[in-house]
Specification:
Layout: E1 2-6, E2 12-17, E3 28-35, E4 38-47, E5 50-58, E6 65-70, E7 77-83, E8 86-91, E9 96-100, E10 106-111, E11 129-135, E12 138-143, E13 151-157, E14 162-169
Antiparallel strand pairs: 1-2, 3-4, 4-5, 5-6, 7-8, 8-9, 9-10, 11-12, 12-13, 13-14
Amino acid sequence: SSVRKYTKAGVLVIQRNLMADAPTNKDQINGLCLKDGILYVSCAKNVNGTATSWVAEYNPDTLTPLAVRTLSINAFSEGLQFAHGHWWVCFHASKFVARFTTAWALVDTHSLSFQVTGPVHGYGPDKGYDALVWDGDDLLLNIHEIYDQANVDRYRWNGSSFAQGARLAEPTTKATQGM
């Protein structure tokens, strides 16, 4: 719920509880991305099976709120990152990623093909990912801890779709929350 900024020596510089910031009705703070001097924060809420997701923007030096964007998709956002000229977001209990413009307009969604097993529960209709990171043309996503697999899945982006790459072992135990 709080974001903390530390020096490289581990000294706390500033912290802010983001739950009181707009939108004030969010359930969770899920992903962070620092880009071009702005801290982007993924947050979401689920009410009776209807998910709403936002991206809140902050000044990274002062943690002052700058803007809030509502994502035009009924899913519970988790990780986010900017790559290939677009914003990319993965969603809880869902095996797809969404691509957005720099103004957060939905461009398209892409289904992901690795099998994820375990109980279907949480904020979505399927089983899925918690966070994402781009490495060149490779998209890496870690499987949420509530499912059976403890892996990071690698997909290759060809400019218009994803091909299944490799399923990687998690780097450490419980590496299922963020990347």
